[in-house]
Amino acid sequence: MADWENLRHFMAVGRSGTLSGAARALKVDHATVSRRLAALEAELDVMLVDRLPRSCRLTAIGQQVFDQAVTMESAADSIARIARAAHTPLIGKVTLSAPPVLAAHVLAQHLAHFRSLYPDIRLSLAAQAQQVSLSRREADVALRLVRPEETGSFARKLGVMEFGLYARRDYEHREAPDRWQFIAYDESFADMPQQQWLLGIAGPRPIACELNDISGHLIAARAGAGVAGLPYFLGDADPDLVRVGQDVPSFSRGIWLVVHRDLRKTPSVRAVMDFVVALITQHGGFSA
Fold first, then answer.
1. Which terms are listed as keywords in the entry (predicted)?
2. Is the overall model pTM greater than 0.85, yes or no?
3. Which of 53, 125, 128, 132 has a CA positioned 20 to 30 A from the CA of residue 206?
């Protein structure tokens, strides 16, 4: 039987593609990962990884072992979730992952109210643009702006976040659309739907600046840096901003709540889910 810790380090190498990446993910040093990988290969008497100058590539047998190890990991995580579901009701830590725009501008301002309702639940709010894995317990509950497709999860659509173009009320080119300059994300966000929407509207017109979070876009637009694509609930609530370009193509993103089925009925997780559902569905800035 292979040592589970060795398998865990091997899976980290398979996921990251490098020893250093695996070390960062596991919060250990490079030598530990190398030692664990070598130990697993010795246990199984096969070469699992081709060590290239700048990366690691799974061998054919290594890919088979990796796939089986992922299945084992999923089963182990399921056992842990079942055990967790039996814990004392309404006590413990619940991690909620949410897109930064919702974490900062919707959820954070209600944490005190949640605490007053559930003083024995420690709600950990993680503002994350990237999707986390519920099956690997990277979060207990997640809000997402794309329809979840994870197996073993329960998902519910809570609403729709609509976007528009906004500029400062006294933006110098407000009445001259051909002279607009735009506030966008950088190239690392090229695949993000709102970036594609904004760049499609901008066309050949210049990008004034690039910021990698929507709060930065809001602040830059408020400062008069250019035209930003913002959710209605943010732009309409800011007295310094006005919606412009009403004839531009519409754009919206769905808001989805997702939780692993094994945790769905855990009382503390249920409390967080109900609280989030109420916040989003009763929020005046989102459509159904």
1. DNA-binding, Transcription, Transcription regulation
2. no
3. 128
